[in-house]
């Protein structure tokens, strides 16, 4: 494994499988009443969040704590960043505090990559702009594997605002590494120009793709990143690209429905679909902690897991 996890493309097939297998082992601990391992005792993990986040920030914090690391939570609001401190000066401060790993979420694509040049510890990208979110892709793959078994040849459909989604890009990269076949479905205005070079298919017809999908992953319509009109009305968007009960009926019996959260209920996904037995949305959150434990554990070179879990 590389020292940093910045892009899903940093992971070879073997690396990705090692993370997922390690997460499987660690999931056993999450089922116990005492969920803590001493593995990262004395190590420091800094969570550096420049953008709003609920589940990702809490998930990294829970993951580091379950491995007994010391956790420092830094959010840009209320810090010297609001006084104009640069990312580099913030990084040097963290470095002086001896961070072994820095988990960063930032509104600018490429910020984690820059940070990696300035700190000695491992950098983990927790979402940079519209670029990547590799641990989300790992927790999604982990969730699919638990429900469906190995991902080779599985058909995964990712639907919605691909243009603004770091989740979509990381998922396409990781899922193709793992041998799955990905199809993106979106209005042409919500697809990046570069999509032709991504390892996936593209379709504009959700109803045609659903019957052959093993997984349908809905993306949030990211209004906060939209500076223009990308579709006529919300109603029109839902009608063509929203997942409602009638559309779900086109899926085969074992197919699952995913969403990284936060959801716009009633827009990209109907509430009754989000809360149905096919939906893995709550599982994804729980699996996020286990998967991030595996990432921190492997990046920080924890001791032999076999000996720890017995
Ligand atoms: C995603 C994100 O922040 O990129 N959410 C998450 O990490 N759970 C997706 C989104 O915001 O829509």
Radius of gyration: 19 Å
How would you name the CATH homologous superfamily of the largest domain? Aspartate/ornithine carbamoyltransferase
Task: Give the overall shape, derived from the CA principal axes.
Answer: globular
Report how far apart the termini are.
25 Å
Q: What percent of residues are in strands?
A: 5-15%
Main sheet strand line-up = 7-6-5-8-9
- Label the CATH architecture of the largest domain: 3-Layer(aba) Sandwich
The tally of strands reads: 9
Can you summarize the main beta sheet?
Answer: 5 strands, parallel
Bound ligands, each once: N-carbamoyl-L-aspartate
Q: Name the CATH class of the largest domain.
A: Alpha Beta
Number of helices: 12
Secondary-structure element series? HEHEHEHEHEHEEHEHHEHHH
Helix content: 25-40%
Number of domain modules: 2
CATH topology of the largest domain: Rossmann fold
Structural class given helices, strands, pairing? alpha/beta
Low-confidence stretches: none
Question: What would the average pLDDT be, to the nearest integer?
Answer: 93
Catalytic activity: carbamoyl phosphate + L-aspartate = N-carbamoyl-L-aspartate + phosphate + H(+)
Pathway: Pyrimidine metabolism; UMP biosynthesis via de novo pathway; (S)-dihydroorotate from bicarbonate: step 2/3
Pfam families: OTCace, OTCace_N
Binding site for L-aspartate: 83, 166, 220
């Amino acid at each position: 494994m590389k020292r940093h996890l910045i892009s899903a493309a940093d992971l070879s097939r073997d690396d990705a499988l090692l993370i997922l297998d390690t997460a499987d082992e660690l999931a056993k601990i999450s089922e116990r009443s005492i969920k803590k391992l001493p593995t990262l005792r004395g190590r420091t993990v800094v969570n550096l969040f420049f953008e709003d986040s609920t589940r990702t920030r809490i998930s990294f914090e829970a993951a580091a704590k379950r491995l007994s690391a010391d956790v420092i939570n830094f959010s840009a609001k209320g810090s010297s960043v609001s006084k104009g401190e640069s990312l580099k000066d913030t990084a040097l401060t963290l470095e002086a505090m001896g961070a072994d790993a820095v988990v960063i979420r930032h509104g600018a694509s490429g910020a984690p990559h820059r940070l990696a040049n300035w700190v000695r510890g491992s950098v983990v990208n927790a979402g940079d702009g519209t670029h990547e979110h590799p641990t989300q892709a790992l927790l999604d793959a982990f969730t699919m594997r638990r429900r469906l078994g190995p991902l080779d040849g599985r058909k995964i459909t990712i639907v919605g605002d691909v243009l603004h989604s770091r989740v979509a890009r990381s998922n396409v990269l990781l899922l193709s590494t793992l041998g799955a076949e990905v199809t993106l479905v979106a209005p042409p205005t919500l697809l990046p120009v570069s999509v032709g070079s991504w390892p996936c298919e593209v379709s504009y017809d959700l109803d045609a793709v659903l019957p052959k999908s093993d997984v349908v992953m809905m993306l949030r319509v990211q209004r906060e990143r939209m500076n223009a009109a990308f579709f006529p009305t919300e109603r029109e968007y839902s009608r063509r690209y929203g997942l409602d009960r009638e559309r779900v009926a086109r899926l085969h019996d074992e197919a699952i429905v995913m969403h990284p959260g936060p959801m716009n209920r009633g827009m990209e996904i109907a509430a009754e679909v989000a809360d149905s037995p096919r939906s893995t949305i709550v599982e994804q959150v729980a699996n996020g902690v286990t998967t991030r434990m595996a990432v921190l554990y492997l990046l920080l070179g924890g001791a032999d897991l076999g000996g720890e879990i017995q």
